[in-house]
Every structure is written in structure tokens, then in C-alpha cells.
Design a protein that fits this description.
Blueprint lengths: L1 E3 L1 H6 L13 E6 L22 E2 L2 E2 L2 E2 L1 H12 L5 E6 L7 H13 L4 E5 L4 H10 L3 E3 L7 H7 L4 H14 L4 E7 L5 H13 L3 E6 L16 H15 L9 E3 L2 E4 L4 H7 L36 H16 L14
Helix pairs in contact: 7-8, 8-10
Bound molecules: iron/sulfur cluster.
The site of iron/sulfur cluster (SF4) has 12 residues, from strand 7 and strand 9.
Protein name: biotin synthase
Keywords: 2Fe-2S, 4Fe-4S, Biotin biosynthesis, Iron, Iron-sulfur, Metal-binding, S-adenosyl-L-methionine
EC number: 2.8.1.6
């Protein structure tokens, strides 16, 4: 049995649902009932959020035969990558390794794995089995919030991520969630560090899911999310320099370039597209269709582009007035 995101299943012709935007990556989920206990995740040990949820997306289950057929369909249906999320279920990752081999035997698409590994040796096994990329999620970038929300040591997790990034240059990604107790200043500092280490960053907006300990906390304000998207995009493209950026009480107040130039730098809207591995668009992972999109899974309209840039600029004018970190902890 394997879970396939509802949008992916539609692209694979395994399920009939109407989708506003097609995924460009096939999202698969292996295992359920994680041994980890992340407070935002419906798959965590103590969550009652439902095994068929991850983020706000539903993941119906299918047989391995369905998956094989679906992978064939996917290639002809604008899917350019496969992403397999492995839920941690014990000390061994045998079923993950078996599934990687199965996917590679049935598809020529590049495959990335998002898994909670403990040591580089486990990354080695995943690459040897056929993974093209590996995501080691930091999720929470404030060390105290990391301990509260995910458990364990942020420092050790970051070190593992950096060790893998140095050993497999250009093949390592991470996930960072905005709105889980971090300041903008520490978020941008880690962007800068990871970009210099050649780590690909995927930004997520904290999404409260019913049945999880953080189910009634608020998602991040859109202005704050847009500031972080713009910072990531401009740093990645070497348009700005972290050392020249300004912060006040942890809030980003200046990118170190004239505000009047920013509109030009952000033209086209690429800063506000879903970030992460190539061709990963994660449609509606953080938001419902029809609401403001934190991550655009498709090109922005001119109107959307202008609104997004206005959010970045408005944040700067108001910088310093907003309280950094917006999460109301439930525990
Ligand atoms: S960035 Fe996208 S494709 Fe890469 S591991 Fe994360 S969800 Fe998967």
C-alpha cells in the first residue's frame, strides 16, 4: 500500500477529481503513524489529525500495481519529478529502500526522498537505492521552538544537514516553515548559511491542522511570508547581501538596497512561486483554492504579482512595528 496525494492521483488517472492546478511533481507518502511527534503534523505519534493527511492535502491509499500504472500515466501528463515522503516507523528504512527501487524500475523521472534520517550512512543507502535528491527537513529554525515542537536538538539536525550537503553537493534540500516561533532575522540568517552550503530551501507556511497540538494556532501573516519569500529569492540570486540587510526587534526592515529598486528586482513574480526541488509546485499544500496563496503553484497574474510585491514593500515601511514570531503555543 502507498498513499498518493489526491492531485497526483488525478494526474495519474487513479482518481477523478477536479483540480485547479496540476502538480508538476508526483507526491507519494509511505507509512503512517510516525515515531516522531512534531506538533504541527497529522502523521505524528500523538496526533488525531488522520493518517490520510499531510499538510492540508489528503492522501488516499493505492496498491503497488496502481502506482506502477500511475507512474506511466504521470510521465505523459506534465509530471517531471517524483517526491517520496517516508514516515519514520522504526530504526530501519527497508520499506523505503524497496519502494525507491520499485519506483526507479517503473519510471525514468528523477526521484527525491524526504525522510527523517539519523546519520549520513542512511542518506548513502537512499542514494544507492536510486534517489536523485534528499530532503532533510529542519522545519523549525528557532532552536527553542525546535525542541518544543519537534523534540531533539536543532544543532544536531543542522549539522547532519550540512554534513550531507558537503558530501552530496547540490543534491540536498530542506524544508523551512514560517510561523512556528522563529524571528525573521534568524530565518534570513539560516537562508544565507544554507544557500552558501548549496542546500535547496523549500518554504512552507505554518498550516494549523485539526487534531494536532498546534491545530488552533494562527498561520503567518501574508506580509511576513512575502518578506521571507523575497529574502530567499534575492539572496539565492545574489541580488542582495545578507550583511547589508536590516532588522529591528527580529523583523526585516530593509534588504540593503533602495526600496525603489525592489519592485524591479521582484518583477515577474518568481519570488512568490513554490520554492524547493526543481519542478516541485505543491499545489494548495498550505492554503485552500480561492484563498490568498502563500506559494503560487503556477505563474502569477499581473494583479497577483503587484499585490505580492506591495506586501513586501508594506512590510518594510511598517518594519519594527510588528512583533516577531507569531505562534501562540498551545502547550
Ligand atoms: S521540495 Fe518538494 S520535491 Fe523536494 S522534498 Fe520537498 S516536497 Fe519533495
Amino acid at each position: 500500500m502507498i498513499r498518493i496525494s489526491a492531485g497526483t492521483a488525478a494526474c495519474m488517472k487513479l482518481k477523478k477529481i477536479k483540480t485547479d492546478v496540476h502538480p508538476t511533481t508526483a507526491y507519494l507518502l509511505l507509512g503512517e503513524g510516525c515515531v516522531m511527534n512534531c506538533s504541527f503534523c497529522p502523521q505524528s505519534r500523538t496526533s488525531s489529525g488522520g493518517a490520510s493527511r499531510l499538510g492540508r492535502v489528503t492522501w488516499p491509499s493505492f496498491t503497488r500495481e496502481d502506482l506502477k500504472e500511475g507512474l506511466k500515466e504521470a510521465e505523459g501528463n506534465n509530471i517531471k519529478r517524483v517526491c517520496l515522503q517516508g514516515v519514520r516507523q522504526g530504526d530501519k528504512q527497508e520499506s523505503l529502500l524497496r519502494t525507491i527501487k520499485e519506483i526507479k524500475n517503473n519510471s525514468s523521472l528523477p526521484l527525491c526522498i524526504s525522510a527523517w534520517i539519523k546519520k549520513p550512512q542512511e542518506a548513502e543507502e537512499l542514494f544507492a537505492a536510486g534517489a536523485d535528491r534528499l530532503s532533510i527537513a529542519l522545519d523549525v529554525v528557532n532552536p527553542d521552538a525546535y525542541k518544543d515542537i519537534k523534540g531533539g536538538s536543532y544543532k544536531e539536525r543542522l549539522q547532519l544537514l550540512l554534513n550531507c550537503a558537503r558530501r552530496w553537493p547540490g543534491k540536498i534540500s530542506t524544508h523551512i516553515i514560517i510561523g512556528v516561533g522563529e524571528t525573521e532575522e534568524e530565518t534570513v540568517a539560516i537562508f544565507d548559511k544554507l544557500i552558501k552550503e548549496n542546500v535547496t530551501i523549500a518554504l512552507f507556511a505554518f498550516t494549523p491542522i485539526k487534531g494536532t497540538p498546534l491545530g488552533s494556532s494562527a498561520p503567518p501573516k501574508i506580509e511576513r511570508y512575502r518578506r521571507m519569500q523575497a529574502a530567499l529569492y534575492l539572496l539565492k540570486n545574489k541580488v542582495i547581501d545578507y550583511a547589508a540587510m536590516n532588522f529591528k526587534k527580529g523583523v526585516l526592515t530593509g534588504y540593503g538596497v533602495p526600496i525603489s529598486d525592489l519592485r524591479e528586482y521582484l518583477k515577474g513574480g518568481s519570488a512568490f512561486l513554490t520554492s524547493g526541488c526543481p519542478d516541485c509546485n505543491r499545489p494548495f499544500y498550505n492554503e485552500s483554492p480561492g484563498s490568498v496563496l502563500y506559494n503560487y503553484p503556477r505563474p502569477l497574474t499581473l494583479e497577483e504579482e503587484e499585490a505580492a510585491v506591495d506586501c513586501v514593500l508594506a512590510g518594510l515601511e511598517e518594519g519594527g512595528n510588528e512583533v516577531a514570531g507569531n505562534l501562540a503555543f498551545n502547550s
